[in-house]
Amino acid sequence: MSQDTTLDAVLHRLDQGLDAAVDRLAAFLSIPSISTDPAHAGDVRRAAEWLRDELAGIGFQASVRDTAGHPMVVARSQPGGARPLLFYGHYDVQPVDPLSLWDRPPFDPQIEDTPDGKVIRARGASDDKGQLMTFVEAFRAWREVHGALPSDLVLLFEGEEESGSPSLRPFLRDNADELRASLAMICDTELFGGTRPAIVTQLRGLVGEEVIIRAADRDLHSGLFGGLAANPIMVLTQALAALKDADGRVTLPGFYDGVEDLSDDLRRDWESLGFDAGAMLGRVGLSHPVGEQGRMPVEMAWNRPTAEINGITGGYTGDGFKTVLPAQARAKVSFRLTGQQDPAKVRAAFRDHVQGFLPPDCSVEFHEHGASPASVMDTSDPAFAAARQALGEEWSQDAAFIGSGGSIPIAGDFKTILGMDSMLIGFACDDDRIHSPNEKYDIRSFAKGARSWARIIAALR
Questions:
Q1: pLDDT digit string (tens) for 204-257?
Q2: Fewest CB atoms within 10 Å of the CB: 50, 114, 409, 414?
Q3: What mean pLDDT comes out for the span 130-135?
Q4: Helix (H), strand (E), coil (C) string for the chain
Q5: Nearest to residue 129, comparing CAs of 156, 90, 98?
């Protein structure tokens, strides 16, 4: 039987088994595996054990591995393949608050008919249980047709992604020999424009920092002390306002060291995507891009670094009015990084910047909130062209090579710890309401996602 014929048989098996696959996904979604809430620690483990049993049932050597936090699920097929591949996803989910905004219980998954087709609605439906299960269902159909799984596969499913992955890096280091492969597949991204398949080839990095400025030992009367005593909010806001110039460029010395402009080929590719910044902003009640002047909107979103103020507090913020000079002010600031920017250098430059605004009576305190470099994939690897073609065949349109403005630190960890690039392919839609009430996943995306992975696996064998 030819490879094309056996692939057709796998795709047919996926189509015939879709209802059963949706039932399995619903059972998985019913487990409230909220990793940030200690009250759900038992549910997180129950989800890990559910996955282990599903994977063992289709022929993987699967186990639940304890960590200092929530467990990892590791599964392997038989050795001997031409190219070892690692598949990564996460089975933990975000909290559901505010519960009152859900139309139905978030862990009671239901199929709904919508104007755009059938969806399954539950917490984790799109991020990331539904996407993770596209892997599993593709492997299930493969084994049912071939009688065996593809060789040299390792699956790593994490239970702490939504709580910062505190156990992941130690686990990768401790199990590097077992987990190392030639390429990692990550299914936690979106279709482009909700309909076009896409491979994310670059991700922005991230630096998170909290800054606290203190002055007097108590809040002060602004009439008695105004104009005389230092005001921490004023000091803090002056420092934060000076982070960008009038053209939207970040002012920190050395901030753009390592930032790379688009290649001519990638610029042409991105220009051809028809990225509509107005439509994207319009969905959230905005209309005008505010990034660096002279840059394409898609370039601002995917290939330029940022400095953003995520939160700021200080003084009296309750009802009514209270005329005080606050004793302290604090802010949370994040930087998205591109190219070869060094997170440690960016953090140090920010701290130096803030300290330059401190008057004699003020002190400053800093707290780190994560750091990861940007990730840029080597698309000269023939696997990228093969996956692009496979996706195009399934979706009847060319797959796009795109960037992502977000940060998926696991891709950088796979590179620095395991020495391998990642291929990020996802089948979510931008209206799936991930992290929000009434999260959903399109059944068509679920079905075509599993078919897509079957095609990619066949192309890489």
A1: 999 999 999 999 999 999 999 999 999 999 999 999 999 999 999 999 999 999
A2: 114
A3: 98
A4: CCHHHHHHHHHHHHHHCHHHHHHHHHHHHCCCCECCCHHHHHHHHHHHHHHHHHHHHCCCEEEEECCCCCCEEEEECCCCCCCCEEEEEECCECCCCCHHHCCCCCCCCEEEEECCEEEEECCCHHHHHHHHHHHHHHHHHHHHHHCCCCCCEEEEEECCHHHCCCCHHHHHHHCHHHHCCCEEEECCCECECCCECEEEEEECEEEEEEEEEECCCCCEEHHHHCCCCCCHHHHHHHHHHCCECCCCCECCCCCCCCCCCCCHHHHHHHHHCCCCHHHHHHCCCCCCCCCCCCCCHHHHHHCCCEEEEEEEEECCCCCCCCCEECCEEEEEEEEEECCCCCHHHHHHHHHHHHHCCCCCCCEEEEEEEEEECCEECCCCCHHHHHHHHHHHHHHCCCCEEEEECCCCHHHHHHHHHHCCCEEEECCECCCCCCCCCCCEEEHHHHHHHHHHHHHHHHHHC
A5: 90
Q: What is the pTM for the complete model shown?
A: 0.86
Amino acid, res. 365: E
* pLDDT tens sequence across 10-33: 999 999 999 999 999 999 999 999
CB 271 within 8 A of CB 296: yes
